[in-house]
Design goal:
CATH architecture of the largest domain: 3-Layer(aba) Sandwich
Strand content: 5-15%
Keywords: Glycosyltransferase, Transferase
GO molecular function, one term: glycosyltransferase activity
Protein name: Zeaxanthin glucosyltransferase
CATH topology of the largest domain: Rossmann fold
Radius of gyration: 21 Å
InterPro entries: Glycosyltransferase_28 (IPR050426), UDP_glucos_trans (IPR002213)
CATH superfamily of the largest domain: Glycogen Phosphorylase B
Number of domains: 2
Number of helices: 17
Helix content: 40-55%
Distance between the termini: 11 Å
Organism: Conyzicola nivalis
Order of helices and strands: EHEHEHHHEHEHEHEHEHHEEHEHEHEHHH
Structural class: alpha/beta
Shape: globular
Number of strands: 13
Length: about 425
């Protein structure tokens, strides 16, 4: 049997998808990954076959920098970073406007490339990133069944009266005014209509006009796999979902890192893991405030600074582990708490180890993810642009003191039955 995994050329997307593929690999089955060249080394590290497939202009092998992106994509990334400094609504509005140009990249030719891959590989099963819209469009027109993996918060698939790009919930620290929210909703409605028209035009170009959609953002595969714990999802929203499975988390195995292993073993004192992911690490101003708050608590810290300017962070304690990139899963397995941006990988991996969180969301589904952590009592959330060092310190003290049996039970459940096993069983 052959499993085909289709992923954008982004490490944060490929890593959880590839982790799911290890269940098929363990069963002695063939696994082929269709993705771009920037993440080829990740495919190699899993021991999978790779076929080249470019699904968009940009790429991200692990840490994304505007200067490493192709012309046009670099300016868009700088615009996004600038928008995060203005606030929640401004960032979501920027991202909504950008979707008019970046979600369906050269859709007909890209879809035909996907179809050629399917014809060459001849897979028995296909799993694809939900946000790889051109790939899902291709599979739909090709008549190829597939499992649709929602790697972000489940709100990436709108249900009921939701509209893509408008968060169904956000944490208490964000208080946008009604007029701004109404304008954002109107923009998201407009983008949804525009995207649907583009989707349908591409179907026409692929001789699949009979499959035209009323809302392309609500399209999905035969089975939805949510890389998210059911325990964090509101039951009322779960009832609105089409055929699905919550697989919990896609926690990967990481290669041994002698420096990290030695640092963990060097002290029995608790530590906090800090990371804003591959994109938002550029917000060194926020990271500097978080680290100042932690320094005042006299607790050990492991921090992945990513693309942040090291000079912006000031003098850090000598016993801290500070690197551009760190093995996140390894450190989360030993940490006492974590600070992150609410990215779905960071949230679900932290839940796997029962870690309380301080979440500082900047964009997209991070607000909904942070709201879920806050709602369930698994941590706290603050607005990254306005939270002071004192406010961060106080929140960190509360998070470190948190003892929630349901969080411990969730971690035990996610470790007992990993996401890869749940995904394999769902597709078996």
């Amino acid at each position: 049997m052959t499993l085909l995994i289709i992923s954008p050329d982004y490490a944060s997307h490929l890593l959880p998808l590839a982790t799911l593929g290890t269940a098929w690999q363990a069963a002695g089955e063939r696994v082929v990954v269709a993705t771009g060249s920037a993440t080829a080394s990740i495919v190699d590290s899993f021991g999978f076959e790779r076929v080249h497939l470019q699904l968009g202009r940009g790429s991200n092998p692990g840490i994304i920098k505007a200067e490493d992106q192709p012309k046009g994509e670099d300016d868009a990334l700088r615009g996004f970073f600038a928008a995060t400094r203005l606030g929640m609504v401004e960032t979501l509005a920027f991202q909504a406007s950008a979707r008019k140009n970046d979600l369906l990249w050269d859709p007909v030719d890209t879809a035909r490339a996907v179809q050629r891959v399917v014809d060459e590989v001849k897979p028995d099963r296909v799993i694809v990133d939900h946000l790889a819209f051109s790939a899902r469009l291709a599979l739909l027109a090709h008549g190829t069944p597939y499992a649709d993996v929602v790697l972000g918060h489940p709100s990436a698939l709108p249900v009921g009266d939701e509209v893509y790009g408008y968060p169904p919930s956000w944490p208490r620290a964000f208080e946008p005014d009604a007029a701004s929210l109404a304008a954002l909703r109107a923009l998201c409605d407009d983008v949804s209509a525009s995207f649907t028209a583009e989707w349908n035009a591409a179907l026409d170009g692929l001789d699949a006009s009979h499959l035209r959609s009323e809302n392309a953002f609500a399209e999905h595969g035969e089975l939805l796999l949510f890389n998210y714990p059911r325990e964090l999802h509101e039951p009322a929203r779960t009832a609105l979902l089409p055929a699905h499975e919550f697989i919990g988390s896609a926690v990967r195995s990481e290669a041994a890192d002698d420096e990290v292993d030695a640092w963990i073993a060097s002290s029995e004192e608790p530590f906090v893991y800090v990371s804003f992911g591959s994109f938002l690490s550029v917000r060194g101003d926020v990271l500097a405030r978080v680290l100042a708050a932690l320094a005042s608590l006299r607790i050990r810290v492991a921090v992945a600074i990513g693309s942040a300017d090291r000079a912006e962070l000031g003098d850090l304690p000598a016993d801290w582990l500070v690197r551009e990139f760190l093995p996140q899963v390894t450190l989360l397995a030993h940490a006492a708490a974590a600070v992150n941006h609410g990215g779905n990988n960071s949230v679900t991996e932290s839940m796997t180890y029962g870690l309380p969180l301080l979440v500082l969301p900047f964009s997209t589904d991070q607000f909904a993810g942070a709201a879920a952590i806050e709602r369930e009592g698994f941590g706290e959330s603050l607005a990254p642009n306005t939270a002071t060092v004192d406010e961060l310190r106080a929140a960190l003290e509360r998070v470190l003191a948190l003892r929630e049996p349901r969080l411990t039970a969730l971690g035990e459940s996610l470790r007992t039955t990993p996401g890869r096993e749940r995904a394999h069983a769902a597709l078996a």
